[in-house]
Write a structure and sequence with these properties.
The protein has 18 helices and 2 strands. By secondary structure, the protein is mainly alpha-helical. The protein has 2 domains: about 450 residues, Amino acid/polyamine transporter I (Up-down Bundle), CATH 1.20.1740; about 35 residues, no CATH class. It has a two-stranded antiparallel sheet. β1 and β2 form a beta hairpin. The C terminus is likely disordered.
Length: about 475
């Protein structure tokens, strides 16, 4: 039953929603992901500035990468190549390219409509821009419930499954035991809240990402002369032009989009929850940073995994097996048995930070639904840890099917909301563009410019009356 529902939702509806609306947002924003591609690196550099009271823009980026860079970049790519052939990688690229515009839109809106809690910390996300932007709290609650179920529960089950079975393949460790240890360590971090989670992500994300890229690049460099041919195979297979993979064009598209969305999460409504907590001067600047994370996740990390698999010689047309084991064995085929160990350790780090991110998403949306409650929070933490144990011993197809269904429903509600709010998003982008053209290096959003929008005006800057008519002078962010 799960497979039947999943086949319709993520096999048909998800492709139309993510690729179709992503392309629409790309056109309406005048290909913002291309126009601002070089600007992304400048904004990324500026994001390194820390905030003493709030989560910094860089920490928000590390948190989003903690979620994006997870099992999907190792196990997900392996599954995509196994079931869709090399052409699936091309459709992952397409999904990421249009998804960059979608992510910029959703994360910018999350910044615009964020709110402060009783302790002064920022909170936001799709539920917030649905409630305050569309004035439809009931739909915001539906979105919040879907995010709790998808990220707090089903994705965490999938992540724990990936790491425990990887450790079993590399070391022969019983998944039950590794699942218990994983749940115990995560429980210690959960109690520290968003600031502790951000500090852990700030430390682990750069380490795990650079180490993984370094090893995969080593494999790619060893066989660099085969890389151009392999890239050509990916493109030809995507359109059924390669005889060995000609019959997989349909599977290539479906698996490329499904696994691409699972890896980079563009349009799902997950990244806006983290993007909203950052302290920035203009919402678009955080949208630009988050668009960069989609690019980095798919075009860099997923491509490294795909080339690792395809260049290893272990993968052949018609390969049938576990996508995770395929990635492990592909590295081992080039560097020796320590490759299996490395993939297991890398995946453990990927999964650990991804689960922290997923947990926060669930907690943030649970607070939106029920408000602050220690008992509710304790119950949520307990259930998350229980589902981590459940996922560690479940069958992979069951876990993936459940995650794909809830993921598609998240995308459906979020993308409908973005479509209804896209004019506000375009106003934000136009305001940002105008300030940059006026020579303002770091654009600032002023509350008076969006008086007709239901935002928290105390969060954004208030212009000095003497400088209102001077577009080159902008008063700083509060």
């Amino acid at each position: 039953m799960l497979e039947a529902i999943n086949g319709f939702l993520s096999g048909k509806l998800l492709i139309v929603l993510v690729v179709g609306l992503g392309a629409y947002f790309t056109i309406k924003t005048r290909f913002v992901q291309l126009r601002y591609f070089l600007h992304m690196f400048k904004v990324f550099k500026d994001s390194l500035t820390s905030s003493s009271t709030q989560i910094s823009s860089f920490q928000a980026l590390m948190l989003s990468l903690a979620g994006r860079v997870g099992a999907g970049n190792i196990a997900g790519v392996g599954v995509a190549v196994t079931l869709g052939g090399p052409g699936a990688v091309f459709w992952m690229w397409v999904t990421a390219l249009v998804g960059m515009a979608t992510t910029l839109m959703e994360c910018s809106l999350a910044q615009l409509y964020k709110r402060r809690d009783a302790s002064g910390q920022f909170h936001g996300g799709p539920s917030f821009y649905i409630e305050h932007g569309l004035k439809m709290r009931w739909l915001g609650v539906v979105m919040a419930v879907l995010l709790v179920v998808t990220f707090g529960f089903s994705f965490n089950g999938l992540q724990s499954h990936a790491v425990t079975h990887s450790l079993q393949n590399a070391f022969g460790i019983n998944p039950t035991y590794s699942g218990i240890v994983l749940a115990g360590v995560l429980g210690l971090v959960f109690v520290g809240g968003i600031k502790r989670i951000a500090k852990v992500a700030d430390l682990l994300v750069p380490v795990k990402t650079l180490a993984y890229i370094g090893v995969t690049l080593y494999v790619i460099v060893l066989q660099f002369d085969h890389v151009p041919m392999m890239l050509l195979t990916i493109i030809k297979s995507a359109f059924g032009l390669d005889q060995a993979f000609g019959g997989l064009i349909g599977s290539a598209i479906v698996m490329g989009v499904k696994r691409g969305v699972f890896a980079n999460e563009a349009g799902l409504g997950s990244a806006p929850n983290v993007a909203a907590v950052a302290e920035v001067k203009h919402p678009i600047s955080q949208g630009v940073v988050q668009a960069f994370s989609v690019f980095f996740d798919t075009f860099v990390i997923c491509t490294c995994t795909a080339l690792l698999i395809l260049l290893s010689g272990f993968y052949t047309a018609g390969f049938a097996g576990d996508g995770l084991v395929l990635t492990q064995n592909s590295l081992a085929a080039v560097v020796g048995d320590w490759g299996r160990v490395f993939i297991s350790v890398a995946l453990a780090l990927f999964v650990f930070t991804s689960i922290l991110y997923n947990y926060y998403l669930g907690e943030n949306n649970l607070k939106f639904i029920l408000g602050e409650s220690r008992k509710v929070l304790l119950g949520y933490r307990t259930l998350v840890l229980a589902l981590i144990l459940w996922g560690s011993v479940q069958d992979l197809s069951t876990v993936f099917a459940f995650a794909d269904i809830t993921m598609t429903l998240c995308a459906l509600v979020n993308l409908i909301a973005l479509t209804l709010l896209y004019k506000v998003g375009l106003r934000l982008l136009a305001d940002y563009d105008k300030q940059r053209k006026a020579g303002i290096a770091e654009p600032v959003l002023t509350a008076t410019a969006f008086e007709d929008v239901n935002i928290d005006k105390g969060i954004w800057s208030t212009p000095n009356p003497e400088t209102v008519d001077n577009p080159a002078i902008v008063v700083g962010h509060r």
